[in-house]
């Protein structure tokens, strides 16, 4: 899949993801039809583009990389690499300080220069992902460190559709 240009967004035929940080929802669109919707959790620090802010960036992005195909559900990632661990309640209790990145990673790259691409607002260099999270973490309210957290089953479904190059629009309700 090739990377779209801003003039081509939203796609009229192809699949794309919409993330509404106001509603804490992700919608998977096929052209102009919503095929599925799920709850997410965006940045607890709110919305923003700045590096080091812990905020979730807005604007048009695309999936730069899809990481983790073939790994078990609850595979634990650090630095975008599988640690060899599979998350369990016992592992979570043994390491309560960890920000768990589980199951799969969809790594985003911004498409809008000065908004989410380049300089101190670059989503790719900020390591903004869609990723799985432990089942005890809340959905439907901001609680992440800037990434988009998802339930594993929702992420696995999205991972099958959102190949590298897939457009992703992050926005707040009404924007």
TrEMBL record:
GO terms for biological process: cell wall organization; peptidoglycan-protein cross-linking; regulation of cell shape. It comes from the Bacteria. Belongs to the YkuD family. PROSITE patterns: LD_TPASE (PS52029). It comes from Vreelandella nanhaiensis. This is Murein L,D-transpeptidase. One of its GO terms (cellular component) is extracellular region. Pathway: Cell wall biogenesis; peptidoglycan biosynthesis. The active site is at residues 131, 147. GO terms for molecular function: glycosyltransferase activity; peptidoglycan L,D-transpeptidase activity.
